[in-house]
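Summary for the funding panel

The consortium committed to producing paired sequence-structure records for every protein in the target list. Below we show the first two records in order, beginning with the earlier of the two.
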Amino acid sequence: MPGRWAKVPATPLIAASLLQKAARILQQGGLIIYPTETFYALGADHTNFTAIERLLILKGRGPQHPLPLILSSCNETAKLCAPCWPAALVEKLCTEFWPGPLTVILPAAIHLHPALCSPPTAPSGSPGVAVRLSSHPVAAAVAKLLGRAIISTSANLTGHPPCNLPQALDPILLEGTDLLMDAGPCPGQQPSTIVDLRHGPPYRVARQGAITLCSSWLE
């Protein structure tokens, strides 16, 4: 894979150059594989609809599984959400658990690609968008350099297990992406915890994961 395998080096200057390359690839509509605080992820610029369609085809992912996002900053949350969202609770959760493996589902803004939006869970409800601020320095830096959220779906073909080692990545994904950022093993023990903040209180934990939320957090 000439030109695709890029190991994150220890030297800050070289690392910064590689991070900038990744952000540039995303800005130009490319796809990358990058490490997160859970598993390796397949990434694209969330505003580039052509790149999203390419990612969906490559991964074999259908509309029933919306694509989550890693934010460039906490402030970006408001840009991705519809006006009716529990800002005070989001601020409380983010202050305590971000950056980290906590994904929150919020009412989605109307300008988002449909593949980013989960269906409403109530007749009068809103589609949702799943977001988090990553604690992995590579994932966080790439999103920050791009200046907007990046897609963060696990780097595996749909139906296959996620990967925490670059050596275990499927050759189909490696061939179909423009850059692999090899930073060694990811923690890979549990996925992020997902909490749905569209309806409540109390709010619903959609998936238990790396962070355990007690009920008092969601009231």
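The next record, for a separate protein in the list, is shown here:
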Amino acid sequence: TTIFAPSSVIKNGPLAPNACVIKINKDCSPCQFDMRKLVTCRCIAEIGIDEVWGKVRTDLELYRG
């Protein structure tokens, strides 16, 4: 599981074909290319622990087989 905010999934995406991506879709994203936006970016904080834990738990269940 990979968390993306504020970086670009296309540019920096995970290499594994079975990777799971958690990201925020906003009009201003990805802001990694605009330093003025990047210094005020707070979108990673909008990704909740429940969402992350759910994806990690799914990854662990797939890994265990």
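Regarding this second record: The first helix runs from residue 9 to 12. Strands lie at 2-4, 21-23.
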